[in-house]
Amino acid sequence: MNHSTKQTKKTYLVGGAVRDKLLGHPYHEQDWVVVGATPAEMESEGFLLVGKDFPVFLHPETKEEYALARAERKVAKGYRGFEISADPSITLEEDLRRRDLTINAIAEDEDGTLFDPYNGVADIEQRILRHVSEAFIEDPVRVLRLARFYARYAPYGFTIAEETKALVKTMIANGELEALTPERVFQELNKALSEAEPQQFFYALQEVGALKILFPEVDALFGVPQTAQYHPEIDSGIHTMMALEIIAKMTDDLPTRFAVLCHDFGKAITPQSEWPSHKMHEIRGVPLVEEFCRRLKVPNHYRDIALKVTEHHLLMHQAFELRPKTLLKLLKNLDAIRKPDNLRRFVDACKADARGRLHFTDRPYPQREYLLAIREAASHIDVQSVIKDIDKKAIPEAIEKAQLQAIQSYIREYRENTLKD
């Protein structure tokens, strides 16, 4: 295309705001593209340059992002291997062409007129996720974004176009996914976990053949049977997806959702001769979760709760049978006295595990409130009176003894009230 002439400067609303407005889906940000402008012109109007790789500006008042129209050319492997050109002759159609999906390649001018060169409106109406062009194949991040959009819009009935699935399979065959950095994979995973139906992200990756490459620990769970008495859904992968669905309805907390994703990794390495039983899967799972977190460079607070839930979720299910000493040991292991959020994350994840089973989704889980109450009892001892007039070295033991007595007292009271009921 001839880029010798500068166009008249014009601003368009693009991307998510246009898409979500058409869908009736809530949106909170607006992004704009400016055609026919130079960086100098934008700065002269008070816009603040913030983009490092290409010209993106913040509006002086609204602080919304305004990007100059740009085109991309693939020059090397991976999602960073692009040469970007942004000059006043780049057209809106060229800018929209570099976008991943047709539903993201719609623009709206200031009069509300839609500019839709790649039939994104029709794909929204038909509920189809479809790539804009063959250039989709050039950026492996788009596979993760495709799955993420599927997770977001699955409630609207969206499906992935067959030709888009075929493109992803070509990308996998060409080794494009290997160019993804761990940080970027986790970044997209984290965004996917924030969706209303995060389990759909993994189903989408499974459907296009990318799950076993990007998240082999999750993929390995599918096809592994469990004991029907406790898991009527049978399949370990389906159980994990059901537990994810449950936790997404319970809490927006992402480390908790991440812990639920990881909690049963150990079932994938149970010897087949032991199926459908999975004795010690909680212990076997710990090194798998450690490696998963190391590989994806997962933040420590995500990793820590995932490891605790993996190792201790069976203990939590048996909370009513546990001795006071064991309960106190569990609280200490979670550092729950000092950090109540640790316990809240733990009990929520365990509740999702217990309910993420066929026909169990509404089953009561009183263990959650029970352990929270035990933590309250243990944390409200009068420390000053406990340590008064005793030797410094004896303080930890004295505090532990008082905590144990508080737990015993609570359990007695709980059992008496339960018998009355």
TrEMBL record:
User: What Enzyme Commission number does this protein have?
Assistant: 2.7.7.72, 3.1.3.-, 3.1.4.-
Q: Which CDD domains match?
A: HDc, NT_ClassII-CCAase
Q: Which residues are noted in the entry as ATP-binding?
A: G16, R19, R99, R145, R148
> Could you say which residues bind CTP here?
G16, R19, R99, R145, R148
**Subunit comment:** Monomer. Can also form homodimers and oligomers.
Recorded family membership:
Belongs to the tRNA nucleotidyltransferase/poly(A) polymerase family. Bacterial CCA-adding enzyme type 1 subfamily.
Its protein name is: Multifunctional CCA protein
- Tell me what organism the protein belongs to: Ignatzschineria ureiclastica
